[in-house]
Amino acid sequence: YTEAWDADKKSIHVMPDTPDILLAKANAANVSHKLYVKGWEEAKKKGYDMRADAIPIKTAKASRDIASDYKYKETHEKEKGHYIGCPSAKEDPKLAWAARAMALQNDRLYKKAYNDSKTQVHIPVDALAVQAAKDCQTLVSDIDYRQYLHQWTCLPDQNDVIHARQAYDLQSDNVYKSDLEWLRGIGWLTEGSVDVVKAKKAQELLNDRLYRTRPEQLKFTSITDSPDVVLAKTNAMQLSDV
Q1: pTM score of the predicted model
Q2: Its Gene Ontology biological processes (predicted)?
């Protein structure tokens, strides 16, 4: 089947100036790392001239001096101890401004007037707010809300007492369940109960073994001369490389 193709592969010859070959060479040159760094490698072989007065060197020195902490604080260090014209610290404008800022930020000084005036507030006893608070306290007070009644003494043979006892016996849980006391301690088998039967039915419905039949349990014999089998064999022979 592949004999003709194998023979054609040996007789194919591509000209070196075809568009596909030229395009492949151009793409190879574009993606070549050696050609990409060729100019940089040649520039490195020529060497370089880095004088002390070169512009990059001056730029680097200026950047270093700007970023240097010593140069940044040089003026401040020189001005230390040269404050002249202030006989005391209070007359120095910078120190006075710092003291004023500290006083504004001080929480104790900020609340001094409020703390002094807190204990000087006097409210008259008949003020509207005080009266409203007293009325509210009376409304929410448990002592004024609950007024316990005196204890009544009833005779045991009164009609209302007898009726109350009968109603209490009807509502009592002990009296309500007294007819079931004879069942206490008697054994009972759950076999045949509604819940057990329902659980068994649900188990039978969910049982996969009873619901479906395994393929290996089915009796099946393939027919060797059916059209599908014959067609499959023919296709296999046609596609066989041997």
Answers
A1: 0.18
A2: cardiac muscle thin filament assembly
